[in-house]
TrEMBL record:
CDD domains: ACE1-Sec16-like. This is Protein transport protein sec16. GO terms for cellular component: endoplasmic reticulum exit site; endoplasmic reticulum membrane; ER to Golgi transport vesicle membrane. Gene3D superfamilies: 1.20.58.940, 6.20.50.30. It comes from Hanseniaspora valbyensis NRRL Y-1626. It is a peripheral membrane protein. The keyword Protein transport applies. Keywords: Autophagy, Endoplasmic reticulum, ER-Golgi transport, Membrane, Protein transport, Transport. It is found in: Endoplasmic reticulum membrane. Pfam families: Sec16, TPR_Sec16. The lineage of its organism: Eukaryota, Fungi, Dikarya, Ascomycota, Saccharomycotina. Residues 30-103 form the Sec16 central conserved domain. Residues 179-463 form the Sec16 Sec23-binding domain.
Length: 463
């Protein structure tokens, strides 16, 4: 008779004690312990002898820390650390990461944006413009290849389009008279319907501009769909991209993001092509004569689009938006009731996040205000110090802890966070100092001879 396994039977079996206690050896061991001196203790008893060996090994032999983490030129201090030094390190790191096929593509874009921000810090002429980051979001050579492919599709499908479709439509005299009549009495909707029925999109756009951004956007979408209809497999992509560009620059970016959120097909499109959308929009930000107004429109869109991506669990893509908008790292909500907090770049417990966040902090534009650093980065900087201690980098860890102390001074002295961070920093600082004294602090041969020389001089001089 075949036994039937049920959740109840499995639970019953789990509660039955082991008949052979030696079976516990395979479940309880090996024993593993982190030691305070940068060592690891491990023990695995043998089933064939009564002798048990305890192995002592260094953390370095078990924990694989990327070389670029150890080579990071931090702590980064404004006025002392040179941007060129960071740029050199970033260049080597980006090259290494780009060669890693397993690395998240959005993460690669993130590194390139940060590298560009540091590169532009050396340009003393002016503040960086957003369009300068476009090429880092999407490679222009890839975009040119896409355009050429789309042009080929258009030419291949040109036989499907009639000559009437290739030329613009225009209202006749009677139609124009009707439109003018309705406009005189303020009936915009009827005037617009007449223009659209006759496919006169030039007139339709003029009329819709009197009806607000939403209506104008609808007319633009209709026009784009008609123009690209039957032009190949990329026609929907072209319509969506052009529509996005137009909406942002007429100040309708918030509505665009709302469409991304509410329409499932647009949601998927925006997530898959977020970097192309941003690259195209930023690249078109150079033609406006009112750069301040354009920059305001772009920053508003970047924040809204970043929140959209964050809510869709695209955290690295969202970080790219917030970095471009120069949003400070903080434990506070980005916007009221948004439930979005931008306290670090990427996952705060990852090694790459620790580095990226500190470089972003260094590049952050504080608009002339006194700025010692982001308080939200104290935990990640402490983590970096701990990792450096495990790697026997005691001097560097001590410098990082000193930088943490400076930022910690920004907190009220009686606050729970200040007390907590002060305790942790002090404890790690003591650990770093003890190791420095026991190893680096040993007297050198030259120091010994120097001391003896002074003693002989005193002896000869009768002291």
């Amino acid at each position: 008779m075949q036994h039937k396994f049920t959740p109840e039977s499995i639970q019953h079996q789990a509660s039955v004690p082991y008949s052979n206690p030696e079976q516990l050896l395979s479940r309880q061991f090996p024993i593993f312990q982190w030691a305070s001196n940068g060592k690891i203790l491990s023990m695995k008893p043998s089933q064939y002898s009564g002798v048990t060996n305890i192995k002592i090994s260094s953390v370095k032999s078990h924990v694989d820390i990327p070389k670029y983490f150890i080579d990071f030129p931090g702590p980064l201090i404004r006025g002392k650390t040179k941007p060129k030094t960071i740029s050199t390190w970033l260049s080597n790191t980006v090259e290494l990461i780009n060669g890693d096929s397993a690395y998240d593509p959005n993460g690669k874009i993130l590194w390139q944006l940060i590298a560009k921000k540091i590169e532009l810090m050396d340009d003393k002429k002016m503040l960086p413009k957003l369009h300068e980051f476009s090429a880092k979001l999407f490679d222009p050579t890839d975009l040119l290849a896409f355009i050429q492919n789309s042009s080929y599709n258009l030419s291949q499908n040109s036989g499907m389009m009639t000559q009437q479709q290739m030329t613009g439509f225009k209202l006749d005299f009677e139609g124009l008279a009707q439109v003018l009549t309705y406009l005189r009495v303020g009936d915009h909707s009827t005037a617009l319907d007449i223009a659209l029925k006759n496919n006169d999109f030039s007139m339709a756009m003029v009329i819709s501009s009197l009806m607000g951004k939403e209506k104008w956007t609808e007319v633009v979408d209709l026009y784009l769909k008609k123009e690209f209809q039957g032009s190949g497999p990329d026609s929907e992509f072209a319509v969506s991209l052009l529509s996005s560009i137009f909406q942002v620059f007429i100040g309708n970016g918030k509505s665009l993001v709302s469409d991304f959120s509410s329409n499932p097909s647009k949601t998927q499109w925006a997530i898959q092509n977020w970097n192309i959308v941003l690259a195209a929009i930023l690249a078109n930000g150079t033609s406006s004569t009112d750069s301040a107004a354009t920059n305001s429109l772009l920053v508003g869109f970047l924040v809204d689009f970043g929140i959209f991506l964050y809510n869709k669990k695209e955290f690295l893509a969202a970080s790219c938006c917030f970095i471009l908008a120069d949003i400070p790292l903080s434990e506070n909500e980005l916007l009221p009731e948004s439930n979005v907090v931008f306290k670090s770049i990427g996952a705060s417990n990852s090694l790459d996040s620790i580095l990226l966040s500190e470089v972003y902090e260094f590049s952050f534009n504080a608009n002339g205000a006194k700025f010692n650093g982001f308080i939200s980065l104290i935990p990640s900087k402490i983590t970096r110090s701990e990792v450096l201690l495990l790697q026997d980098e005691y001097s560097l860890a001590s410098k990082c802890l000193d930088a943490c102390s400076q930022v910690n001074k920004e907190l009220p002295k009686t606050s729970a966070l200040h007390i907590k961070y002060s305790y942790i920093i002090g404890k790690l600082k003591t650990q770093a100092t003890d190791h420095s004294e026991s190893w680096i602090g040993k007297p050198t041969l030259s120091g010994v001879w120097g001391t003896l020389d002074k003693s002989f001089n005193k002896l000869i001089g009768g002291d």
